[in-house]
Structure formats: structure tokens, C-alpha cells
Give the backbone structure.
Amino acid sequence: MVERDVDKTIEALLEERRIFKPPEDFADQANVNDASVYESASDDPDAWWASQAERLDWFEKWDTVLEWTAPHHKWFLGGKLNAAHNCVDRHAASVPDRVAYHWIGEPEGEARTITYRDLFEEVCKLANVLVDLGVRKGDRVAIYMPMIPELPAAMLACARIGAAHSVVFGGFSAESLSDRINDAECKVLITADGGYRRGQVVELKKAADEALQKTPSIEKVLMVRRTMDDVNIVEGRDVIYNDVVPQASAEHGAEPMDSEDMLYVLYTSGTTGKPKGIVHTTGGYLTGVSSTHRAIFDIKPETDVYWCAADIGWVTGHSYIVYGPLANGCTSVLYEGAPDWPDKDRWWSIIEEHRVSILYCAPTAIRTFMKWGTDYPEKHDLSSLRLLGTVGEPINPEAWVWYQEFIGGGRAPVVDTWWQTETGAIAITPLPGITTLKPGSATKPYPGVVADVVDEKGNSVGRGGGGYLVLRRPFPSMLRTIFGDDERYRETYFARFGDEVYFPGDGCKLDEDGYFWLLGRVDDVMNIAGHRISTYEVESALVDHKSVAEAAVVGRQDPREGETIAAFVTPKSGVEGDDGFAKELREHVSGVIGKIARPHSIIFTDDLPKTRSGKIMRRLLRDVAEERELGDVTTLLNAPILEEIKAKAARGASKEE
């Protein structure tokens, strides 16, 4: 395991002394305004989670809350429910005209308002079409779409008939799509002709067609016409969504699902390169996301307009654009495009127009807004915002304070949340009605979540100590396994500290008040703009280029950009390592993985630092990338190469503009 040098990070964080108490008017009306909730959840976690599950609509009540045979756990055994019924049907019956989504397309002027009645009818029609295409309970359906209303409708239609969905982020390449389809053995692909990003069409169908050349399990493709561009249509395989769904019946009964039936599989990066298919089940997951969404964002469904500015292709979008908000009958904003199109105030314009009251986004976005300056938000009335949230990576205190002051008007609490694809729902977070906030800290575990910070041997470090974040008890929304590879599930999350202690791979510090300060990954998985990408994946993509002999990749912490990708590349003989070649490599990585994985900086070198056994010393390369004093080099076979690499880094790496 590659360890980060976190001493300086801890020291810097603990110099933060500013605190923000809950505003009185906010605390008075908060959904959770009594701190005894922590004590009651701690005294009887099963009873606490049962009380949260009771907020859902169950066809049959469970008879056992938790069955825990470490490292596996099952929740609400014997209970039957349906996620689509909970997210759509019950609200369509009680508040049919409430807006589920204000959808805004990236091209200006494109917008749709989708009520719960509208969403219910779309989901039922799509469910009937999927059945006609041969999808049955237990099948897997791949979804590769832009941020359009048909995306959540597709997820819910799968849930309605009991088919697990596998959403693949629309920015991923054809190869990434085919890998995920094949691993889950998906039967049908739902996609679109394309989408819009920064004024350009993202050619999703073109990428899908390329991926489908290597996906024998796919029988049918259902394609939404979004851009209306001419695309290839394969006779007998491809079906046009716009032709068949509007004509389908709007009557479809939701399939009763066991609480432990799989709801979806979502792929996340692993240290061995092959993405891990994270399995989430129906009852526990829906309990976790609906509970956390209501309490952490203080949701008032009758009045709030909530905006999670993530992409549904990531778990944040699954949990806090689709399942959490819809389970709570909330009105959300769904935006297709980029924050700087057609100008850098697009988000603030949307917030002003729709009177958004809650905004949830990544620290990467906040730092970008800081760089652009305050003129853009100051052009708009943001007074409707009453709560702000951050997700995806630790937020540095200055970005927290800027966000609170210039976006939240100095009055809106900021909930900094820690969780991951595997936990399914937020695990460490403030509760804004009762928690005193510290910029840069995710504060305390959510009620019913048992977290700790331990040393190398798994012993609690106590307040004031730093080490590894662990979860000592499962909670309902956590993953059940890795799809098709339970041994990898055990090895990845429980090998280090034993079957009863889940290790998420993050470093953490506990301050004297018991607040958690997350320090990022301690393994070879990078956190790039809130998205997990393994160093192995990027290295493999680089070496896949015909002119690359060897490559090593590390994450580089940047105070403004967050974590970025630094690559060290050895070209093959006769190849010039110049800016042109660096640009070519970035495009190559983009094609293999997706644009999110392009290296920010590339240093060309004749060799890489290696031990006598041939292992690349990425720890030392990270020291070079972050301009630190080099660690121990005594085990190196070729120590002089480090001085050459340092000299090249000092002269300046090839950086992406």
C-alpha cells in the first residue's frame, strides 16, 4: 500500500479554528434539531434504522432488521417493496402536480417541467417497452445517457420490473462501456444519439456502437433521440425510444422485490485496474438515501427546490438526484451541461430563475468558481439558497468559507459530506440544525453509522490522533458484494483489519472535539474532481500507446485544483518527449478511459525509480510531483534517475491548459 505523507496536511487542517454555529432560525425549523438523536441511534442502531425504513412504503413488513455474518450483512429480511413505487407512485397519487424535475438543457432556452404524474406515466410506459424487449426480473440493463429526464426514468423503469441497472457515465469511452456491459452481462442497452457539453455534441451512439462490437450479451438497444443528428441504426437490434415509449401503455404494476434483491450495480475504480461492480440492494439502500437526504439537507418537499449538481453516472447522482430526492417527494433541478456554458454564471442563473434553496456540488467546482471571481455570482439573486453541501473529496477551509460567504450569503450552513460508491449514502456529515461547523471537517458520523480512526494494528487512536478511517458496523445502504467476485469484496474491504471492520481506503484525523478530518486516499486510487480513478487504469492506458515503453502515475495534491493526475512516461527509442507527444497521450487516455482521466502534467524520463525487484517507487514520484523532500531512496536500484526527474520537473512538466 502506498502511504501519503499527511503530516503537513494534518498540521494545516488543525490550524483551522473558525466555527459556525447553526443559525437560530434554521435550527428552529430543522428536520433534526435535537442532538439526542445521536445517543438513541448509538444505544440501538437496529431500532434507529428500522424507524428510518418505516418512512418507506412496504408491500410486506420485514421480520428481521439485520442479519450480520461478517463480512456480509442483510437488512430488513422478509420485507418486500419496490423502489420505483416509493419514488414515483405514492407521490403521483398524493401530489400529482408537484414538480419532480425542472430539467434544463445546455442549449439556452431548452427546458421541461416534469411532474410526479408525468414521471409516473413515463416510467410505466418505459417499463412496458422493456418487457416487450425481453427484459425480466433479475436481468441487467446498461444505461449510457446524457443528463436528460429519460435517464432517471430508465433507472426507475428497471427498478419497477425488478431488473438491475448499470449506469455508465456518459463521459466514459467505448472500451469502458463494453467492459462494464460484459462484466454485468447486460441484456439491453439504453442510450441516446448524443448529448450536449460546452456547446459540443457528445456522440454517445457512436461510442455505443463501437462498444457493442464486443458485447455478446446485448440483445436490444433502446435509443433516445436527443440531438436529432444522423446516427447508425442497426436493423433488428436498435429501437427508437421516441417511437415506442409514447405509444406504450401507462399502466404497469410495480414488481414486489425482496429487500435484499439487487437494485443496481455501479462500477468504481480499483487498485488492480479492473473496475469493481458495486452491488446495492433495494430495501437497505432506499432506507439509507431517503433518511440521509431528508435529515442532512433538511428537505421540505412542499417548498424546497433542491439541486445536486453531479452527474447521474456517478453514485452521487444515483443517491441524491434520483433515489433520495424522489423517495422524499422532492422537487429537483436536473441540468444537462457545463457550469461555464454559455458563460461562467450559468449555475447562478439557474439558481435565480428556479429559486433553488439547496445546492450540493463538488469542492472542485467551488475552487473553479473562486478562480473565476465573485463578479459572476454577484450578477444574480442567490438569496433563495438556505443550505449548501459539498461532496466527492475533502474541501479545503478557504474554499468552504468562500462558498459560504459568496454563494450562501454568509448565512447558509455548509454540510461537507464523506461517503463513497460502496457506502451508497452519506456516512460522515453535519446535521445542519444541530452541528457546529468547522470549515474543512465533515464533522461526525451520521446517526446509526459507527466510524472510528485506527492505527496500523487496528487500534483506535483516540481524539487528537490520525490514522485510517474505518466503519465498525454495517449500515443499510452499504454494498453487499462486488458483482461476480465476492472474494474480491472480502480482500478489498476487510483484509486489512478483519471481517468485522470495513476499511474504505481513506486517511483521517480526529480532533479534540471528536470531529473527523478526511485526508484522502491512502492507496493507489486517485480522487479526480470527486471521481475515483486508479493509477493502474491510467498507466495501462498510457502504456497501451504504441510509442510508450513504460509509465507511472500518481495523484498530485494542488491547493486550487484538488487532486490532479501526474504522469511519468518513458517513450520508446526514437520518440521525442515533447508537448506534441504529451497532447497525443492525453487524447489517447481520453479515448481509452474518458476525458476525466487525462493527465494534468506529464514528465518524460528515460527511466523510472525502481527497487531491486523492479517495483516502481510511486511514493518517490509523488514526492517529486508535490515538490517535497524525497523519502528514503536506499532501496532503489537506480537512484540517480530521481535527480534527473526532479530537474525536469523543476524546468516544468508538460501541463494541460
Summary: The domain at 525-655 is CATH 3.30.300.30 (GMP Synthetase; Chain A, domain 3). The CA atoms of residues 547 and 575 lie 7 Å apart.
